[in-house]
Amino acid sequence: MTTDTESCNMGDFCLFRPNSEFRDVQSTEQPMKFIINVSGLRFETYKHTVEQLPESVLGSASKRNRYWDSENNEFFFDRNRTCFEAILTYYQTKGILIRPATVPMNIFVNELKFFELGQEALWKATEGYNGFEEQYEKPKNKLQCKVWELFEHPDTSRAARGIAILSISIILLSVVLFCIETLPSFQENNMKRNGTGKEEQDKDRYTSGPFIIEALCISWFTIEYVVRLLSSPNKWKFVTSILNVIDLIAIIPFYISIAMANSETDVSSLAILRVVRLVRVFRIFKLSRYSRGLQILGHTLRASVKELGLLLFFLCVGIILFSSAIYYAELGSNEKFVSIPDSFWWSIITMTTVGYGDYVPVTGVGKLVGCFCAITGVLFIALPVPVIVSNFAYYYSKERNRQMTREMNPEEGSSTSADNIRSLICCPTVNERNTCTGRKVKNGKIIREKRVDSSTEEGGPSEVMLQNNNGNPRMGPVNVIESNV
């Protein structure tokens, strides 16, 4: 099933692709129009427009006549009006399906099923729906799978949620401790400790409260990382993941600092130790594993790399241009601007409209250059901002729709959004049998096998009990059905 995607309005989910289910309706007769009333909102369209999908409710005369209102001379549907606008657009554009951002996915899918737009429309509506959640593979071993979900996916159980809360608390504690260690009282204790012998220094260091708390936090981070690594289904993918690299960076500095503290220290090793200690601040990014807001921000920045690069290029051009201008404008009158590279600081501060005041032009020409620098900086920064904001709004709307769908299906809270929607439309993945329909996908086709009940005399298809993904049984005949996905 090939996909042809194009850009669409922010917040909407749309897929563009030629639809094989549409049929060209050619007629030499005068086009006939009819009115469709959807919950009080009237739509007017041509008959040949909806008959492009002859198997749908609107395209089939026998199906749509069931909703004929002879009193008002119109077809009446007591359905969702917002969804119907998208459905009518699907007919008019021959396959462009746009889900309104205000409509949850499960409601939209139910409307598509009611109007019988076909399997391809359902796939278009749900393809790529799972927000920015990556589809993760589960370990094959049952115990390994439980441990993996316990530490990696907080939404799967209460125990996993409890471990996530514990991890967040320890992360916050370690970050607070990192900040408190720089208070003057702690610095004085370190100075006193440096005046004693090496053995006493080590004893005081390893028995101090901050070190014990830090050691406990690092112990938890280490255990968590090792357990997740051992239980992961793909070790290489786990190690190279950005979030897991951050986790490793948060752990290593502690062990490096202990190793360096026990060795002979010199000026270079002290400088390295300061850098290692500074890396500890990256622990704050461990919260992104549990914060949807930080994940949205991360995906926004990733999607806006070109715009951010363009912004950086604009700023570099402006910095070089105005640094050169201010240097020659203030040459001989202001000792602050001693060179063009030294003027870079003034250009950056002025273009970003911060204005510290440590570098101030004194000549008239210099002040004029400063005015142009500030105005140009505002324009340069403002140019890519709308694109970045639209990317943020796009990912935010996808996450909001995912949450709306989960809230409307609380019993399915432990499964992913993609699993919920898949069970809703009863579409299995390739080579996977669906318990709702008994269908199996093979070579791009959905195939339902014929089942023969031995109790029937002629060996024909029998009435068997089918069960959907929600566990609700239903009765129905099992026939041989084959259709393209």
From TrEMBL:
PANTHER family: POTASSIUM VOLTAGE-GATED CHANNEL PROTEIN SHAKER, VOLTAGE-GATED POTASSIUM CHANNEL. It comes from the Eukaryota. GO terms for cellular component: voltage-gated potassium channel complex. GO terms for molecular function: delayed rectifier potassium channel activity. The chain crosses the membrane at residues 163-186, 206-227, 239-261, 308-329, 367-396. It holds the Pfam family Ion_trans. InterPro entries: Ion_trans_dom, K_chnl_volt-dep_Kv, K_chnl_volt-dep_Kv1, SKP1/BTB/POZ_sf, T1-type_BTB, VG_K_chnl, Volt_channel_dom_sf. It is found in: Membrane. Residues 451-476 are annotated as: Disordered. Gene3D superfamilies: 1.10.287.70, Potassium Channel Kv1.1, Chain A, Voltage-gated potassium channels. Chain C. GO terms for biological process: action potential; protein homooligomerization. It is a multi-pass membrane protein. SUPFAM superfamilies: POZ domain, Voltage-gated potassium channels. Keywords: Ion channel, Ion transport, Membrane, Potassium, Potassium channel, Potassium transport, Transmembrane, Transmembrane helix, Transport, Voltage-gated channel. This is Potassium voltage-gated channel subfamily A member 2-like. It comes from Paramuricea clavata (Red gorgonian).
